[in-house]
Amino acid sequence: MTAELVERTVLPPGVPLDQLADAVRHAHGGHAELVGASGERIVLPDEVFEVVQLVVLAMAAGQAVTIAPHHQTLTTQEAADLLGVSRPTVVRLLERGEIPYEQPGRHRRILLREVLAYQERRRHQRRASLDRMVEISEEADLYEATADFRPTR
User: Fold this and answer.
1) pLDDT surpasses 70 at 136
2) What are the angstrom distances between the C-alpha of 98 and each of 37, 119, 128, 133?
3) What string of DSSP letters covers 52-86?
4) What is the DSSP letter of 15?
5) What is the maximum alpha-carbon separation in the chain?
6) What Cα–Cα distance (Å) separates residue 36 from each residue in 24, 56, 124?
7) 3-class DSSP state for residue 134?
8) How far is 117 from 110, CA to CA, in rounded Å?
9) E strand residue ranges, the chain
10) Going by CATH, does the domain composed of 73-139 fall within 1.10.1660?
11) Is the CB of residue 32 less than 8 Å from the CB of residue 43?
């Protein structure tokens, strides 16, 4: 089977996936296998099994899943699309050294793993900032102060 490598969104099936979701939730990679109709077995690498887990759990929750292949090396526009920012923003991040890149000729090339690492660092920074804001609000009793507000409309 040959499939064209394009972005594709798949809707959850019309049948419950609870049993399958429970199976992948409690399974661990390394021993997961696909079994074909004629009984042939293919061991799934951990990375592939992780994708299967994410897809099954999302679909079991009633969510659609989008699969999008990415090259290992990205252009600034591809990195911008992945991060959900503009291309000039990505260029600024590169120039400030926040995301490593190579420039073998005229165009910058960014490794996918570097973009994903930056995305994860930003996620942790945002979470830490929110945690700190909650901590400051709790110390200042701001959560209690809102109980005295009366609705105006």
Assistant:
1) yes
2) 48, 11, 18, 24
3) HHHHHHHHHTT--EEE----SEE-HHHHHHHHTS-
4) S
5) 69
6) 18, 19, 41
7) helix
8) 12
9) 8-10, 33-35, 41-43, 65-67, 73-74, 110-111
10) yes
11) yes
The encoded tokens of residue 46 equal 């951990």
Q: What is d(CA 138, CA 46) in angstroms, rounded to the nearest whole number? A: 42
Domain ranges of the chain: 8-67, 73-139
Query: What would the two tokens of residue 79 be?
Result: 């990195």
Return the pLDDT at 1: 47
Q: Among all chains, which residue has been given the structure tokens 């793993």?
A: 113
Summarize pLDDT for 7-61 with one digit per residue, the tens.
788 888 888 888 888 887 777 655 788 888 898 998 888 888 888 889 999 999 9
**Contact between residue 64 and residue 14 where contact means Cβ atoms under 8 Å apart:** no
Question: Residue 77 has which token pair?
Answer: 């526009």
CA distances from 152 to 58, 148, 149 (A): 41, 12, 9
Q: In DSSP terms, which residues pair with 43 in a beta bridge? A: 33
